[in-house]
UniProtKB/TrEMBL annotation:
Xref: PANTHER family: 8-OXO-DGTP DIPHOSPHATASE-RELATED (PTHR43046:SF2), GDP-MANNOSE MANNOSYL HYDROLASE (PTHR43046)
Short name of any one Pfam family annotated for the protein: NUDIX
Source lineage: Bacteria, Pseudomonadati, Pseudomonadota, Gammaproteobacteria, Lysobacterales
Keyword annotations: Hydrolase
Native organism: Coralloluteibacterium thermophilum
Protein name: NUDIX domain-containing protein
Length: 151
C-alpha cells in the first residue's frame, strides 16, 4: 500500500483530476511552469472541460498557457499519479500524464508566470510540487531506462 494515495471515499472525492504534459527539449530537459500566485513549479496541463478527452485538454491548455501546438501523434501515456495539490490546500491532485512533443517556443501566458527547463536527474533548487518531484520526474527517468534497455 502506498501511503500517499488515500483509500477512503471522502478523501478520494476531494481529488482534482488533471491532464499533464511532459515536454522535453533536445537535451532531455523537462519543461516546468509556475502559476501566478504560486511558488511551486509543476508540469504544464490542467483540468478537463466537460466532455473533453485527455489529449484535447492538453492541446487547449498548451495553446492557452504556453502558445504551443500539441503534436497529438507523439503522445505516449506515462501513467496516472496522485499526491497533495500544491495550489489548493487540503486537496489532492490526480494527474494523467503523457510524454508529448509540441511545436513552437513556449512563452508564459494566461495563468503562467514563469517557465523552467530542468534536468529530471538533477532538478536543482527549484521548488517543485510533490506530484512532479515524487511521481512524474521519477516516471520520466524510469521511462528513459526502459527505452535505453530496448536499444
Amino acid at each position: 500500500m502506498r501511503p500517499d494515495i488515500p483509500l477512503d471515499g471522502e478523501r478520494a472525492a476531494d481529488c482534482i483530476d488533471i491532464v499533464i504534459a511532459v515536454i522535453r527539449d533536445a537535451d532531455g530537459r523537462v519543461l516546468l511552469v509556475r502559476k501566478l500566485g504560486s511558488d511551486a513549479f509543476i508540469q504544464p496541463g490542467g483540468k478537463r472541460e466537460p466532455g473533453e478527452r485527455s489529449l484535447d485538454t492538453l492541446a487547449r491548455e498548451l495553446a492557452e498557457e504556453l502558445g504551443l501546438r500539441l503534436r497529438a501523434d507523439t503522445a505516449r501515456p506515462l501513467g496516472v499519479f496522485e499526491d497533495l495539490a500544491v495550489n489548493e490546500p487540503g486537496r489532492r491532485v490526480r494527474g494523467e500524464a503523457f510524454l508529448v512533443e509540441a511545436e513552437g517556443a513556449p512563452a508564459p501566458a494566461g495563468e503562467i508566470a514563469e517557465l523552467a527547463w530542468i534536468d529530471p536527474r538533477a532538478p536543482g533548487g527549484l521548488p517543485i510540487a510533490r506530484l512532479s518531484a515524487h511521481h512524474i520526474l521519477p516516471a520520466v527517468l524510469a521511462d528513459d531506462l526502459r527505452r535505453e534497455a530496448r536499444r
